[in-house]
Design brief:
This is DUF2490 domain-containing protein. The chain is mostly beta strands. The chain has one domain: Beta Barrel (Lipocalin). 10% of the residues lie in helices and 66% in strands. The strands form two sheets. An eleven-stranded mixed barrel has the order 1-2-5-6-7-8-10-11-12-13-14. The chain is globular and about 60 Å long. The N terminus is likely disordered.
Length: 256
């Protein structure tokens, strides 16, 4: 009986010690896509993850800060109208409440979308190599992972008659860590499926200037080997637009 009580007390103490962290903030992003030539396109995306409120949890102070600045250029190839492949680079500047890490990333992905009786379903599979540099220790490491995103878009207008209007969007992305970084908590491996992003929102596609979208994003991260979680509750606002490079040249060389 005594060994059973010891095991139960040990398990209960671990459960009580596990403290999920909840933070609240904003996740603005902007994306620009343009045609290079024929089936080739380029895309540049930038985003910022902001923890907007000071918090003190278990006598630890977490100040409001910009947790991440992210910039991602890439080249896209249209294999088919509903199937793409892309490669690119990304830079992420992390500030984990005072721990500063700069991270270079190389990535390759493929995306596919298909219609449903109502709306469209999208799939995106990405492979990433991450090279985080711990600014405090000046040490570098490497992480590799797969990311799979499942998305859904439901236009609230007749897409056969018009190209602009409101739509509902939802997505969920799994981060599957193959190898983790060892020089900081950034991109470390605490679980095989160590991170999940969920989003639901409302978007509006304009006739000419692009698409704006707003909604709620939850970023769930396994933050340590004890499998404690960190939750980011974010208000996401994104703007995406597309134009052709030749249209830009016409604008640049048109006299006023």
């Amino acid at each position: 009986m005594k060994p059973v009580l010891v095991i139960l007390l040990t398990l209960s103490s671990q459960v009580l010690a596990a403290q999920p962290l909840h933070f609240f903030g904003f996740f603005p992003s902007v994306s620009q896509t343009g045609v290079i030539h024929s089936k080739f396109l380029y895309n540049v995306m930038a985003s910022s993850t902001v923890d907007a409120f000071d918090r003190t949890i278990e006598n630890v102070h977490y100040p409001a800060t910009q947790l991440q600045l992210y910039i991602q250029p890439g080249v896209i190839y249209n294999l088919k109208p509903d199937w793409t492949a892309a490669v690119g680079y990304a830079f992420a500047r992390h500030n984990l409440f005072g721990l500063r890490v700069n991270e270079n990333r190389l990535w390759a992905q493929t995306g596919y979308n298909h219609p449903l009786p109502a709306g469209r379903l999208t799939h995106r599979l990405r492979y990433e190599e991450r090279y985080p540099l711990n600014k405090k220790t000046d040490s570098q490491s490497k992480a590799t992972l797969f990311r799979y995103q499942l998305g859904y878009n439901l236009p609230l207008f007749d897409s056969k008659k018009q190209k602009h209007g409101f739509s509902l969007t939802a997505s969920h992305e799994f981060f599957l860590c193959l190898t983790g970084a060892t020089n900081s908590p950034i991109s470390s491996k605490n679980a095989f499926c160590g991170e999940n992003w969920s989003f639901v929102g409302l978007g509006y596609t304009t006739a000419k200037t692009g698409r704006i979208e707003a909604g709620y994003m939850l970023q769930n991260l396994v933050r340590n080997p004890h499998r404690d979680h960190r939750y980011l509750h974010l208000f996401q606002v994104s703007y995406s637009t597309t134009f052709r490079l030749d249209d830009l040249l016409v604008w640049l060389y048109t006299p006023y």
